[in-house]
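Recall the central idea of this unit: under ordinary conditions, the amino acid sequence of a chain determines the structure it adopts. In this exercise we apply that idea directly, starting from the sequence alone.
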Amino acid sequence: MKAARSNTLGAAASNNKVKYSRLAADDDGYIDLQFKKSPPKVPYKAIALAIFLFLIGSLLIIFGALLLSGTIEVEHPDRTIPVIIIGLLVFLPGFYHLRIAYFAAKGYRGYSYEDIPDFGD
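Accordingly, the structure predicted from this sequence is:
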């Protein structure tokens, strides 16, 4: 059984077409490509969603402020506060992610596209 095993290994070694070469004596085992970062992938869908949330939130805040100030007359002025609250809740995440995208695009230290969630893309 042992002889058959060594024959199999010998046959596999002779079929191997990989060419080997000696490493340089001063090689420490590292290559420069290990330490280079690949350029970041820009999450276009997440930035588009952030722009959409920013715009809708801004419109809701402006519309709510106009309703609250009386520029646009309404029957029930107590219903204007929820419009402003919803506008703020939609505006804040859009503004936050747009700010990160802007600073990452400008190359500011500490900001990266990796900080923006890409929603599995």
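The CA atoms of residues 61 and 76 lie 18 Å apart.
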